[in-house]
Amino acid sequence: MTNKYDVIVVGAGSMGMAAGYYLAEQGKKTLLIDAFDPPHENGSHSGDTRLIRHACGEGYAYVPLALRAQELWHALQAKTNERIFTQTGVLTFGPATSGFVQTAIEGGQKYGLNIETLTADDVNARWPGITMPQGEIGCYEPEAGVLFSSACIRTLKRLALSVGAELKVNSPVMDIEIFDDSVKVHTPDDTFEANKLIISGGAWNKKLLNELNININIQPSRQTIAWFDSDDILYKSDGFPGFFADVPSGVYYGFPSIDGTGLKIGRYDNGDDIDPSYYNKTFGAYEKDEKDIRGFLSNYMQAAHGNINVGKTCMFTNTPDENFIIDTHPDYNHVAIAAGFSGHGYKFSSAVGEALGELIIHGETTQDISPFKITRDSLQPENKDEVYFKARGK
Ligand SMILES: Cc1cc2nc3c(=O)[nH]c(=O)nc-3n(C[C@H](O)[C@H](O)[C@H](O)COP(=O)(O)OP(=O)(O)OC[C@H]3O[C@@H](n4cnc5c(N)ncnc54)[C@H](O)[C@@H]3O)c2cc1C
């Protein structure tokens, strides 16, 4: 059976579900297809919460996108009773020499964000749950906070369906055919036809794109997160911020204890490359799963160093230069691609979804996505060690 749509979105996770909603809201006949039933535990959006930082240590180019995303999250919050966002503030910290912390501060200043630069004494006095050594500094953003990622995707799904989008779940896309002005998408049970296509397959993008003659090494990695039994007086979300730490032992991120779940923490820079369909999803399967994050807590947050309440695994997906791809296919402007959202993509998903919708319908978007072109040199294998933005002091 062949059904004809304006747009098919392959991968209805973080980026795809948002794109589907914004397209359907504009009256586009939209079909979302996912291999699972989003939100789910098999991709990159599981684990309930995601930090939204506006002063991004990953590079200045991310700041305007984060601000647009935050506007859209606030607008989404106004449309639902689900909890989408809570403004906990976020503290980015590390040695004063950290390129990540410096980029966060400079980006914040460049875009006039409400940020405070804090010394170790300031931080230790303000949040007694943190023990920061002398010589480290913090960049505090009071307007940043925590997104409830599963609730966001659930809300986007509900709204998308309410304005006419269709969603096929548990339907892995097996094959895509691209013609001059249309596409055909095959699942095990159906074939669907559309004028335009968005590919947002997260950790599976490398495989999907390889089949469309794009050979960029978009590599998934196994990541772990855990919720620690912690002192709620020190770490609960009405006083303790989200945090991102670029410190000598590694890069870590974490969340205050929300609703008594305990402080949540993960490591940002130490995942092992994996195949997204076959990897060990059991937290604790490897010694470093717990050891890495406990080491950080014992140095910086001793009163959050209790038993682990819950541990989970998830996937980051990195391009060779660790920056996103948001662009059309080099050979087909009716095919848009969203890939390589690494360990900090979730916060942008509302803005990325909006941009994908504009790009595929109008051929351009009001947001500056020029740094995320698929044809940039730093994605090519011979340039893989180049860093595209000024970021990362490592
Ligand atoms: C542990 C962890 C912590 C993180 N913390 C943060 C954070 O604090 N802040 C932040 O901003 N970001 C964070 N991130 C990163 C963020 O979650 C990801 O960048 C983002 O979720 C990626 O979105 P995506 O749409 O690319 O992937 P996904 O959300 O995984 O969506 C991809 C979808 O494509 C579907 N799919 C794949 N192949 C097919 C196919 N063949 N057919 C049909 N469907 C298919 C999948 O089922 C999936 O639903 C974190 C990630 C992890 C793993």
Automatic annotation (TrEMBL):
Lineage: Bacteria, Bacillati, Bacillota, Bacilli, Bacillales
Cofactor annotation: FAD
Classification via NCBIfam families: PRK11259.1 (NF008425)
InterPro entries linked to this entry: FAD-dep_OxRdtase, FAD/NAD-bd_sf, MTOX
Ranges where the FAD dependent oxidoreductase domain occurs: 6-359
Organism domain of life: Bacteria
Protein name: N-methyl-L-tryptophan oxidase
Keywords tagged on the record: FAD, Flavoprotein, Oxidoreductase
